[in-house]
Amino acid sequence: MRTLVIADIEGGALKPATLAALAAAAAIGAPVDVLAAAGSVADAARAAASVAGVDTVLAAEGPAYEHALAEPLAALIVGVAGAYTHIVAPATASARNVLPRVAALLDVAQISDILSVEGPDTFTRPIYAGNAIATVRSADPVKVITVRTTAFEAVPATGGTATVRAAEGPAATTGGAGRSRFVSAQLARSDRPELTAARVVVSGGRGLGSGENFALVERVADRLGGAVGASRAAVDAGFVPNDLQVGQTGKIVAPDLYVAVGISGAIQHLAGMKDSKVIVAINKDEDAPIFQVADYGLVADLFTALPELDRAL
Ligand SMILES: Cc1cc2nc3c(=O)[nH]c(=O)nc-3n(C[C@H](O)[C@H](O)[C@H](O)COP(=O)(O)OP(=O)(O)OC[C@H]3O[C@@H](n4cnc5c(N)ncnc54)[C@H](O)[C@@H]3O)c2cc1C
Fold first, then answer.
1. Is 263 in the pocket of ligand 1 (CB under 6 A)?
2. FRET pair for 161, CA 20 to 30 Å: which of 120, 179, 226, 307?
3. Is residue 297 part of a domain?
4. 180 domain-assigned
5. Residue 240 near residue 213, CB atoms below 8 Å
6. 154 and 95 part of one domain
Protein backbone atom coordinates (compact mmCIF):
# COMPACT_ATOMS: atom_id res chain seq x y z
CA MET A 1 0.00 0.00 0.00
CA ARG A 2 1.12 3.52 -0.80
CA THR A 3 -0.85 6.78 -0.88
CA LEU A 4 -0.45 9.77 -3.18
CA VAL A 5 -1.92 13.07 -2.00
CA ILE A 6 -2.60 15.66 -4.68
CA ALA A 7 -1.51 19.06 -3.33
CA ASP A 8 -3.92 21.97 -3.67
CA ILE A 9 -1.82 24.86 -4.95
CA GLU A 10 -2.87 28.42 -5.72
CA GLY A 11 -0.56 31.15 -6.91
CA GLY A 12 2.39 28.80 -6.33
CA ALA A 13 1.55 28.35 -2.63
CA LEU A 14 0.41 25.17 -0.87
CA LYS A 15 -3.14 25.66 0.41
CA PRO A 16 -4.15 24.50 3.93
CA ALA A 17 -6.76 22.11 2.47
CA THR A 18 -3.81 19.87 1.54
CA LEU A 19 -3.01 19.39 5.24
CA ALA A 20 -6.51 18.01 5.90
CA ALA A 21 -6.14 15.59 2.96
CA LEU A 22 -2.80 14.54 4.45
CA ALA A 23 -4.56 13.80 7.75
CA ALA A 24 -6.95 11.47 5.91
CA ALA A 25 -3.99 9.89 4.10
CA ALA A 26 -2.22 9.30 7.42
CA ALA A 27 -5.34 7.54 8.72
CA ILE A 28 -5.18 5.10 5.78
CA GLY A 29 -1.92 3.92 7.31
CA ALA A 30 0.37 3.58 4.26
CA PRO A 31 3.47 5.64 3.37
CA VAL A 32 2.40 8.99 1.94
CA ASP A 33 3.81 10.88 -1.05
CA VAL A 34 2.61 14.25 -2.33
CA LEU A 35 2.23 15.30 -5.94
CA ALA A 36 2.73 19.05 -6.38
CA ALA A 37 2.10 20.48 -9.84
CA ALA A 38 2.18 24.16 -10.70
CA GLY A 39 3.54 26.65 -13.20
CA SER A 40 6.37 27.25 -10.79
CA VAL A 41 6.40 24.62 -8.08
CA ALA A 42 9.51 25.17 -5.93
CA ASP A 43 7.77 26.94 -3.01
CA ALA A 44 4.82 24.55 -2.83
CA ALA A 45 7.12 21.51 -3.12
CA ARG A 46 9.30 22.83 -0.30
CA ALA A 47 6.22 23.47 1.85
CA ALA A 48 4.91 19.95 1.15
CA ALA A 49 8.31 18.44 1.98
CA SER A 50 8.25 20.05 5.42
CA VAL A 51 4.92 18.51 6.40
CA ALA A 52 5.37 15.80 9.02
CA GLY A 53 4.78 12.29 7.68
CA VAL A 54 5.39 12.98 3.99
CA ASP A 55 7.83 10.54 2.40
CA THR A 56 8.49 11.92 -1.09
CA VAL A 57 7.24 14.97 -2.96
CA LEU A 58 6.82 14.53 -6.70
CA ALA A 59 7.20 18.01 -8.18
CA ALA A 60 5.96 18.77 -11.68
CA GLU A 61 6.30 22.18 -13.17
CA GLY A 62 5.59 23.98 -16.39
CA PRO A 63 3.01 26.11 -18.15
CA ALA A 64 0.70 23.10 -18.53
CA TYR A 65 0.14 23.06 -14.75
CA GLU A 66 -0.14 26.78 -14.20
CA HIS A 67 -3.94 26.91 -14.04
CA ALA A 68 -4.69 23.41 -12.74
CA LEU A 69 -6.51 22.41 -15.93
CA ALA A 70 -8.03 18.97 -15.60
CA GLU A 71 -6.53 17.35 -18.71
CA PRO A 72 -2.79 17.82 -18.12
CA LEU A 73 -3.13 17.30 -14.37
CA ALA A 74 -5.13 14.09 -14.77
CA ALA A 75 -2.62 12.79 -17.34
CA LEU A 76 0.20 13.51 -14.90
CA ILE A 77 -1.56 11.74 -12.02
CA VAL A 78 -2.48 8.72 -14.14
CA GLY A 79 1.14 8.55 -15.32
CA VAL A 80 2.40 7.99 -11.75
CA ALA A 81 -0.68 6.15 -10.43
CA GLY A 82 0.81 2.68 -10.99
CA ALA A 83 2.87 3.01 -7.81
CA TYR A 84 -0.14 3.76 -5.59
CA THR A 85 -3.09 2.04 -3.96
CA HIS A 86 -4.73 5.31 -2.85
CA ILE A 87 -4.96 8.69 -4.60
CA VAL A 88 -6.28 11.33 -2.23
CA ALA A 89 -7.13 15.01 -2.70
CA PRO A 90 -9.01 17.63 -0.69
CA ALA A 91 -12.55 18.13 -2.06
CA THR A 92 -11.77 21.58 -3.42
CA ALA A 93 -13.15 23.01 -6.65
CA SER A 94 -9.90 22.08 -8.40
CA ALA A 95 -9.78 18.46 -7.23
CA ARG A 96 -13.49 18.01 -7.94
CA ASN A 97 -12.61 18.94 -11.50
CA VAL A 98 -9.59 16.68 -11.81
CA LEU A 99 -10.22 13.54 -9.75
CA PRO A 100 -13.33 12.22 -11.52
CA ARG A 101 -11.27 12.31 -14.73
CA VAL A 102 -8.48 10.39 -12.98
CA ALA A 103 -10.98 7.80 -11.71
CA ALA A 104 -12.47 7.41 -15.19
CA LEU A 105 -9.06 7.01 -16.81
CA LEU A 106 -8.14 4.36 -14.21
CA ASP A 107 -11.58 2.74 -14.64
CA VAL A 108 -12.39 2.84 -10.93
CA ALA A 109 -15.21 4.45 -8.93
CA GLN A 110 -14.39 7.69 -7.19
CA ILE A 111 -15.12 7.85 -3.46
CA SER A 112 -16.21 11.45 -2.88
CA ASP A 113 -16.11 13.72 0.13
CA ILE A 114 -15.06 11.21 2.80
CA LEU A 115 -15.68 12.09 6.45
CA SER A 116 -13.62 9.34 8.03
CA VAL A 117 -11.31 6.44 7.28
CA GLU A 118 -12.61 3.21 8.80
CA GLY A 119 -9.94 1.05 7.18
CA PRO A 120 -7.75 1.04 4.07
CA ASP A 121 -10.75 0.21 1.88
CA THR A 122 -13.63 1.51 4.01
CA PHE A 123 -14.74 5.11 4.37
CA THR A 124 -17.76 7.14 5.48
CA ARG A 125 -19.29 9.84 3.31
CA PRO A 126 -22.43 12.00 3.41
CA ILE A 127 -25.43 11.23 1.22
CA TYR A 128 -28.83 12.95 0.81
CA ALA A 129 -27.32 16.40 1.45
CA GLY A 130 -25.71 15.16 4.64
CA ASN A 131 -28.89 13.69 6.11
CA ALA A 132 -27.37 10.22 6.18
CA ILE A 133 -23.83 8.94 6.41
CA ALA A 134 -22.97 5.98 4.18
CA THR A 135 -20.17 3.56 4.99
CA VAL A 136 -18.65 2.46 1.70
CA ARG A 137 -16.14 -0.29 0.97
CA SER A 138 -14.21 -0.23 -2.29
CA ALA A 139 -12.85 -3.31 -4.00
CA ASP A 140 -11.07 -1.24 -6.66
CA PRO A 141 -7.29 -1.78 -6.93
CA VAL A 142 -6.77 1.99 -6.62
CA LYS A 143 -8.99 4.09 -4.40
CA VAL A 144 -9.52 7.58 -5.81
CA ILE A 145 -10.72 9.68 -2.90
CA THR A 146 -11.71 13.28 -2.21
CA VAL A 147 -11.68 14.42 1.41
CA ARG A 148 -14.10 16.76 3.15
CA THR A 149 -11.50 19.03 4.71
CA THR A 150 -13.70 20.17 7.61
CA ALA A 151 -13.93 16.56 8.82
CA PHE A 152 -10.17 16.12 9.39
CA GLU A 153 -7.83 17.97 11.73
CA ALA A 154 -5.02 19.37 9.56
CA VAL A 155 -1.62 17.74 10.13
CA PRO A 156 1.15 20.10 11.32
CA ALA A 157 2.80 21.95 8.41
CA THR A 158 6.27 21.45 9.91
CA GLY A 159 8.52 18.67 11.16
CA GLY A 160 8.95 16.78 7.89
CA THR A 161 12.04 16.20 5.76
CA ALA A 162 10.69 14.60 2.61
CA THR A 163 12.78 14.19 -0.54
CA VAL A 164 11.65 16.21 -3.54
CA ARG A 165 11.81 14.42 -6.89
CA ALA A 166 10.95 15.87 -10.30
CA ALA A 167 7.94 14.33 -12.02
CA GLU A 168 7.01 14.71 -15.63
CA GLY A 169 3.68 13.93 -17.19
CA PRO A 170 2.86 13.50 -20.84
CA ALA A 171 1.44 17.02 -20.84
CA ALA A 172 4.77 18.55 -19.89
CA THR A 173 6.29 17.33 -23.14
CA THR A 174 3.31 18.17 -25.35
CA GLY A 175 2.79 21.63 -23.86
CA GLY A 176 -0.52 20.58 -22.31
CA ALA A 177 -2.46 20.81 -25.54
CA GLY A 178 -5.76 19.46 -24.26
CA ARG A 179 -9.34 20.10 -25.04
CA SER A 180 -9.62 23.00 -22.64
CA ARG A 181 -7.45 26.05 -22.34
CA PHE A 182 -7.14 28.78 -19.77
CA VAL A 183 -8.81 32.01 -20.90
CA SER A 184 -8.91 34.30 -17.87
CA ALA A 185 -9.58 34.40 -14.15
CA GLN A 186 -11.52 37.00 -12.23
CA LEU A 187 -10.39 36.87 -8.64
CA ALA A 188 -12.54 38.35 -5.90
CA ARG A 189 -10.28 40.34 -3.58
CA SER A 190 -11.29 40.65 0.03
CA ASP A 191 -9.62 41.66 3.27
CA ARG A 192 -11.86 39.21 5.10
CA PRO A 193 -10.68 35.64 5.77
CA GLU A 194 -11.50 32.97 3.22
CA LEU A 195 -14.94 31.48 3.83
CA THR A 196 -13.84 27.86 4.16
CA ALA A 197 -10.91 28.68 6.46
CA ALA A 198 -12.52 31.35 8.66
CA ARG A 199 -13.00 30.77 12.41
CA VAL A 200 -16.14 32.89 12.33
CA VAL A 201 -18.73 33.08 9.52
CA VAL A 202 -21.70 35.45 9.51
CA SER A 203 -24.19 34.53 6.78
CA GLY A 204 -27.20 36.38 5.48
CA GLY A 205 -30.28 35.05 3.72
CA ARG A 206 -33.26 36.26 1.77
CA GLY A 207 -34.46 37.95 4.96
CA LEU A 208 -31.89 40.70 4.35
CA GLY A 209 -34.07 41.89 1.50
CA SER A 210 -31.35 43.54 -0.62
CA GLY A 211 -27.64 43.68 -1.40
CA GLU A 212 -27.32 47.05 0.37
CA ASN A 213 -28.68 45.56 3.59
CA PHE A 214 -25.85 43.00 3.55
CA ALA A 215 -23.71 45.86 4.94
CA LEU A 216 -25.34 44.99 8.30
CA VAL A 217 -23.97 41.44 8.04
CA GLU A 218 -20.56 42.67 6.87
CA ARG A 219 -20.22 45.04 9.83
CA VAL A 220 -20.85 42.27 12.36
CA ALA A 221 -18.52 39.91 10.44
CA ASP A 222 -15.76 42.55 10.52
CA ARG A 223 -16.24 43.12 14.25
CA LEU A 224 -15.68 39.39 14.79
CA GLY A 225 -12.82 39.09 12.26
CA GLY A 226 -15.02 36.72 10.30
CA ALA A 227 -16.00 35.87 6.74
CA VAL A 228 -19.34 36.68 5.13
CA GLY A 229 -21.50 33.87 3.77
CA ALA A 230 -24.95 33.67 2.23
CA SER A 231 -27.82 31.36 1.45
CA ARG A 232 -28.55 30.39 -2.11
CA ALA A 233 -31.73 32.47 -2.07
CA ALA A 234 -29.64 35.56 -1.25
CA VAL A 235 -27.23 34.69 -4.08
CA ASP A 236 -30.02 33.94 -6.57
CA ALA A 237 -31.66 37.26 -5.70
CA GLY A 238 -28.40 38.99 -6.65
CA PHE A 239 -27.71 40.34 -3.13
CA VAL A 240 -24.16 38.92 -3.11
CA PRO A 241 -21.86 37.01 -5.50
CA ASN A 242 -22.15 33.24 -5.62
CA ASP A 243 -18.70 32.54 -4.15
CA LEU A 244 -20.31 33.42 -0.79
CA GLN A 245 -22.88 30.63 -1.01
CA VAL A 246 -22.84 28.12 1.83
CA GLY A 247 -24.55 24.77 1.40
CA GLN A 248 -24.95 21.64 -0.64
CA THR A 249 -24.20 23.44 -3.89
CA GLY A 250 -21.98 26.06 -2.27
CA LYS A 251 -19.14 25.88 0.21
CA ILE A 252 -18.93 23.54 3.17
CA VAL A 253 -17.85 25.37 6.30
CA ALA A 254 -17.29 24.30 9.91
CA PRO A 255 -16.12 27.40 11.77
CA ASP A 256 -15.98 27.84 15.56
CA LEU A 257 -18.92 30.24 15.26
CA TYR A 258 -21.58 30.40 12.51
CA VAL A 259 -24.17 33.17 12.68
CA ALA A 260 -27.17 32.70 10.36
CA VAL A 261 -29.19 35.85 9.85
CA GLY A 262 -32.53 35.84 8.03
CA ILE A 263 -31.90 32.27 6.85
CA SER A 264 -34.74 29.74 7.18
CA GLY A 265 -32.50 26.66 7.49
CA ALA A 266 -33.40 24.56 4.43
CA ILE A 267 -31.63 21.17 4.43
CA GLN A 268 -29.48 22.26 1.50
CA HIS A 269 -28.17 25.18 3.56
CA LEU A 270 -27.69 23.02 6.68
CA ALA A 271 -25.62 20.59 4.58
CA GLY A 272 -22.97 23.30 4.34
CA MET A 273 -22.79 24.53 7.93
CA LYS A 274 -24.30 22.15 10.46
CA ASP A 275 -20.90 20.88 11.60
CA SER A 276 -20.01 24.37 12.86
CA LYS A 277 -19.01 24.25 16.54
CA VAL A 278 -21.44 26.94 17.75
CA ILE A 279 -24.43 28.03 15.65
CA VAL A 280 -26.33 31.25 16.32
CA ALA A 281 -29.55 31.99 14.44
CA ILE A 282 -31.38 35.29 14.16
CA ASN A 283 -34.81 34.94 12.58
CA LYS A 284 -38.16 36.62 13.17
CA ASP A 285 -40.04 33.33 12.65
CA GLU A 286 -39.77 31.21 15.79
CA ASP A 287 -40.71 28.11 13.78
CA ALA A 288 -37.84 28.54 11.30
CA PRO A 289 -36.02 25.16 10.94
CA ILE A 290 -32.65 26.86 11.54
CA PHE A 291 -33.54 26.94 15.25
CA GLN A 292 -33.44 23.13 15.31
CA VAL A 293 -29.68 23.16 14.73
CA ALA A 294 -28.91 26.43 16.53
CA ASP A 295 -27.08 26.45 19.88
CA TYR A 296 -28.35 30.00 20.45
CA GLY A 297 -31.50 31.30 18.79
CA LEU A 298 -32.73 34.86 18.76
CA VAL A 299 -36.31 35.39 17.59
CA ALA A 300 -36.05 38.99 16.43
CA ASP A 301 -36.20 41.33 13.49
CA LEU A 302 -32.70 41.36 12.04
CA PHE A 303 -32.94 45.06 11.24
CA THR A 304 -33.12 45.72 14.99
CA ALA A 305 -30.92 42.85 16.18
CA LEU A 306 -27.92 43.36 13.88
CA PRO A 307 -27.33 47.06 14.67
CA GLU A 308 -27.70 46.23 18.38
CA LEU A 309 -25.20 43.38 18.07
CA ASP A 310 -22.86 45.65 16.13
CA ARG A 311 -22.99 48.29 18.90
CA ALA A 312 -22.56 45.70 21.65
CA LEU A 313 -19.52 44.20 19.93
C1 LIG B 1 -30.63 21.08 -5.44
C2 LIG B 1 -30.69 22.25 -4.50
C3 LIG B 1 -29.50 22.74 -3.99
C4 LIG B 1 -29.53 23.83 -3.12
N5 LIG B 1 -28.34 24.29 -2.60
C6 LIG B 1 -28.38 25.27 -1.68
C7 LIG B 1 -27.19 25.73 -1.05
O8 LIG B 1 -26.07 25.28 -1.36
N9 LIG B 1 -27.28 26.68 -0.12
C10 LIG B 1 -28.48 27.25 0.26
O11 LIG B 1 -28.49 28.12 1.14
N12 LIG B 1 -29.62 26.83 -0.33
C13 LIG B 1 -29.60 25.88 -1.31
N14 LIG B 1 -30.75 25.52 -1.89
C15 LIG B 1 -31.97 26.32 -1.65
C16 LIG B 1 -32.69 26.00 -0.36
O17 LIG B 1 -33.61 24.95 -0.59
C18 LIG B 1 -33.47 27.24 0.14
O19 LIG B 1 -34.34 27.68 -0.87
C20 LIG B 1 -32.58 28.40 0.54
O21 LIG B 1 -31.56 27.97 1.40
C22 LIG B 1 -33.41 29.46 1.22
O23 LIG B 1 -32.63 30.57 1.52
P24 LIG B 1 -33.05 31.53 2.71
O25 LIG B 1 -33.13 30.78 3.98
O26 LIG B 1 -32.16 32.73 2.65
O27 LIG B 1 -34.50 32.06 2.23
P28 LIG B 1 -35.91 31.76 2.81
O29 LIG B 1 -36.21 30.31 2.89
O30 LIG B 1 -36.86 32.63 2.05
O31 LIG B 1 -35.84 32.28 4.32
C32 LIG B 1 -35.72 33.62 4.68
C33 LIG B 1 -35.79 33.65 6.20
O34 LIG B 1 -35.58 34.99 6.64
C35 LIG B 1 -36.47 35.25 7.72
N36 LIG B 1 -36.69 36.69 7.77
C37 LIG B 1 -37.31 37.47 6.83
N38 LIG B 1 -37.28 38.77 7.20
C39 LIG B 1 -36.64 38.80 8.40
C40 LIG B 1 -36.31 39.85 9.29
N41 LIG B 1 -36.62 41.13 9.04
N42 LIG B 1 -35.65 39.54 10.43
C43 LIG B 1 -35.33 38.24 10.73
N44 LIG B 1 -35.62 37.22 9.90
C45 LIG B 1 -36.25 37.49 8.76
C46 LIG B 1 -37.72 34.47 7.40
O47 LIG B 1 -38.45 34.20 8.59
C48 LIG B 1 -37.16 33.21 6.74
O49 LIG B 1 -36.94 32.19 7.71
C50 LIG B 1 -30.76 24.44 -2.78
C51 LIG B 1 -31.95 23.92 -3.30
C52 LIG B 1 -31.91 22.85 -4.15
C53 LIG B 1 -33.21 22.32 -4.68
1. yes
2. 120
3. yes
4. no
5. no
6. yes
> pLDDT tens digit string along 141-152?
999 999 999 999
Closest residue to atom 30 of ligand 1, CA basis: 206
State the DSSP string of 239-300. SS-GGGBBSTTSB----SEEEEES----HHHHHHHTT-SEEEEEES-TT-THHHH-SEEEES
Mutate to test the pocket of ligand 1, among 240, 263, 267, 287 (most ligand atoms within 8 A of CB): 263
269 lines ligand 1 (CB under 6 A): yes
Residue minimizing CA distance to atom 31 of ligand 1: 264
Instruction: Give the number of the atom of ligand 1 that is nearest the alpha carbon of residue 204.
Output: 26
207 lines ligand 1 (CB under 6 A): yes
Q: Would you say residue 189 lies in a domain?
A: no
Q: Is residue 95 domain-shared with residue 19, that is, in the same domain?
A: yes
Residue 13 belongs to a domain: yes
Element (H, E) at 55: strand 54-61
Same domain, 105 and 204: no
Q: pLDDT by residue (tens digit) across 192-249?
A: 998 988 999 999 999 999 999 999 999 999 999 999 999 999 999 999 999 999 999 9
Q: What is the pLDDT of residues 42-91, one digit of tens each?
A: 999 999 999 999 999 999 999 989 998 999 999 999 999 999 999 999 99
The domain in which residue 67 lies consists of: 3-174
pTM of structure? 0.85
